[in-house]
Structure formats: structure tokens, C-alpha cells
Amino acid sequence: MGYVKFLGTAGARFVVARQLRFSAGTWIELGGTRLLLDPGPGTLLRLRKSRPPLDPTKLDAILLSHKHLDHSTDVNIVVEAMADGGYKRRGTLLAPSDALEGDDPVVLRYVRPFLERIETWRPGDEHGVDRVRIRPVPHLHGAVETYGLVLDSAEGRLGFVTDCRFTADLAGNYAGCQLLVLNVVMKDWKPDIDHLSLPQAGEVIAAVRPNLAVLTHFGTTMLRGNPRKLAQGLSEKVGVEVIAAADGLTVSGEAWSDRARPRAGEAPQ
Predict the structure, then answer these.
(1) Residue 59 maps to which CATH number?
(2) What sections of the chain are H helices per DSSP?
(3) Could you tell me the CA-to-CA distances from 128 to 56, 100, 121 in Å, in that order?
(4) CA–CA separation, 107 vs 124, rounded Å?
(5) 83 near 114, Cβ under 8 Å?
(6) pLDDT tens-digit series, residues 127-154
(7) Residue 31 is part of which domain span?
(8) Closest alpha carbon to 138 in 161, 117, 106, 156
(9) Rounded to the nearest 5°, which phi and psi values hold at 99?
(10) 218 found inside a domain
């Protein structure tokens, strides 16, 4: 059975800089394919300190949603670790083009030869990593190229709504997702910040109606409001199971599987 492990749940610069939550990435395993999303500061350490430890040499791919430091700081050291210190050329990197080129690329040219494959996200494309198909979803997030991701496998459809400004068509890109993970930095909406607020996340969840929604990537206002209680309140409001991730949380595929949800008129097993 697949699973998603949240190595860190920090979002926004103050929570990351003060390490009020860990700022590591998210480990995803589907049908034996191992992916790492957004290796922010401390990811390699949290991989090794995980219980049980997660071995970067077993990774099949690293996925970057965008190049901001809280999502990409550890990308180079994890690439090197994935390649067993650079001695074994292996693994795939999927990233926005501006993370690789332009004035401020975050992926060092030094580590690129360690990878078997490097691909850039483009709207409308679909990428394959072993048993998983990945579709990038263009997001509006300041001046950097940013993508959410929809992952399809035999374990189901998973959506990762990464950093973005809310738009009316956002939810439609994640239709059919059984697990929906949303980066929710703010408790309340602010017009000048390109991040989802809690009410906007609720709109997306209500429209997509996944089997399970997980909130993560918290800013200070979310932490002050107690993410667990905020998620519980949102769940009651939208009628979908919503939980707040904590550092180290593992969500098993059983939690989002259609088999875990009874059809109308049926009793749960």
C-alpha cells in the first residue's frame, strides 16, 4: 500500500527561518515508486532521522514545484545523496525551467551529471516515473514559475496544491483526486499574498471532494490558530474529511482509497 510522509510542514519565511516546524519535503511512495516533493531546508537530515529511516538512494525522482528556498534548498545535496555521493548516475529531476536556467538557477550544474534524466514542467505535458504518471498544474505564485501536481497510479489519484494564488479554475485542475494535499499558509485571506488561505482551501476541497484532504505548509497565523482544530472545523463545514499534517505524519493509502469509503446506503466495513 502506498503512503505519503510529511517530513516537514513549515510554510512562509518566518516559520522556516525560526524552524517552528521542520521545513523538509514530502516523501511519496506509490506502487513501489519513490518520489520526493520540494526538498526544503533540512530534508536530508529528516530523511535520515525518520523512523524508519528513508534512504535517498532508493528515490526514483525529485519533484520541484518551484524554486523558492523553502522548497528547494536541499535539492542539490539530495540529488548527490540519491546518486550515492555522485558515484552512481541515477534518478530523475522534474522541475520548472527557471529552477534550471536564467539568472538564479537553484539546481547546480555540478550535480546535474549525477542524474539519469532531467525534465522541465510544461502545461499540458505528462511525465512518467516508473509506475506513476505526473501532470503539472500551472499556478500563479509571484514572479517564479510554479506548478501543482496530479499523480496517477494504481494506488489512486493524488493532488498536491502547492503555493499559489486562489483562482476560480483552481479546483477543476484537481478533479478526481482521492487524496488532496494543500499548502495553506494563511488562516485569513490577504489580497497581496500569493498563498492560499484557509477559507480558499475550503472552497477547493468542497469542489474537488476528495476522500481525504490534508493541510500543510503552515505560516504563523495557521500555527497560532492550531492547525488540528482549524482542519476539524473546516471538515465539519465542507463535509469532507480534512486533517492537518504534523511533522513526520504518514498517511497510508488506506486513508484515501475508495475502498475505505462506503457507497450511499452501505455501512462502513
Answers:
(1) 3.60.15.10
(2) 13-18, 43-49, 69-72, 75-82, 198-208, 220-225, 227-238, 253-256
(3) 19, 20, 12
(4) 24
(5) yes
(6) 999 999 999 999 999 999 999 999 999 9
(7) 3-260
(8) 161
(9) -80, -15
(10) yes
